[in-house]
Amino acid sequence: TAVLLATAALFWFYLYRGVLRRVNRLVAVAHALEHGDHAARTRFSGKDELSSIGAAFDATVDALQARTAQAAEACRQTEELLATMGDGFVAIDHTWHYTQVNTRAAQLLRRPAKDLVGKHVWTEFPETQGGAAHRACERVLATQQAVEVEDYDAAHNCWYENRIFPAAQGV
Questions:
Q1: How do the pLDDT tens digits run along the chain, 171 residues long?
Q2: Integer Rg of the chain from CA
Q3: What is the DSSP letter of 150?
Q4: How far is CA 81 from CA 10, 36, 50, 104, 139, in A?
């Protein structure tokens, strides 16, 4: 009976170790994904419950990776559209910082887009603070309704027509 008991204990030890190793692998893959390693997979094989869990986990990660690639492509296409459209386009967040400036807007504002993104609108163009466009932006933020406004820019001796739309992050 001692041999039988020792054999049973050894069997349970190896079974437990095998289960524990795969559970630890699931946890390690979850941590790797959390830290940006989207190539991490369990790669379990077999027909037991842990293999099924690992396969479902891997399938979920594959689907997430495919959706992430689709979203990245949609963003790329949107950025390309905004960059090449003939109208000037800017996005401004709730703290009045430029978040996007397309090529045409940069030309109209007479500044490179890269020099405006992240900058505070009223620091870059203090002469426009309190003007018609500023008041219109405030109105759009308050009402969440689009507004059209024409404004004369004395500094550049030209008129601007602005269509201002509400957005989740600003205008």
A1: 777 777 777 666 666 667 788 888 888 988 988 888 888 888 888 888 888 888 888 898 899 889 989 999 999 998 899 888 889 999 999 999 999 999 999 999 999 999 999 999 999 999 888 888 899 999 999 999 999 999 888 777 888 899 999 999 999
A2: 29
A3: E
A4: 65, 29, 46, 12, 27
CA distance linking residue 136 with residue 11, whole number of Å: 76
HSE of 135, CA atoms in CB hemisphere, 13 A: 6
Question: What is the C-alpha separation between 41 and 62, in angstroms, rounded?
Answer: 9
CA distance 144 to 154: 29
Comparing CA positions, the residue from 170, 122, 120, 171 lying closest to residue 147 is 171
- As a whole number of angstroms, the distance between CA 120 and CA 168 comes to 18
In 3-state terms, what secondary structure has residue 161? strand
